[in-house]
What does this fold into?
Amino acid sequence: MGPGRPLRGGVEHAILHLLYSRFFVKVLHDMRMVDFTEPFTRLMNQGQVINQGKSMSKSLGNGVDLGEQLAAHGVDAIRLTMVFASPPEDDIDWADMNPEASVKFLGRVSRLRPRQAQRLPSRRPALVMSSCVRSRTARSTRSPGWSRRPG
It folds into this structure.
């Protein structure tokens, strides 16, 4: 048995896990029950999503209503915005984000498959993208060389 996989998480959350796990690994190492001294191979702290330069907080009233964002832009556009906002270890300020750009991009992608786009409302290009991905995945998994059985 060796150390666990890399530990990933927000600063406050991951640091506490690291603190507790280091304590237990130290005790187990001193009892000669494990031959390693660090519980994880690596620590990566994820950045936070902040708003207007401050941590989002109910008491500050600067939170972003996720339901409103999803209703306005669609889940795929919000996910795409988050993925391309910055490296995972950096903070991002939601006030500087523009999910509408992701909606436009997904709309362009959806036009690559006009047959799929006709089936869904034009105001939700993110849904068209999801449909295109599902369609392509379904076709590829039905191909002769593909099997669900391992090995």
Q: What stands out?
A: Strands lie at 7-10, 43-46, 49-51, 54-55, 92-93.
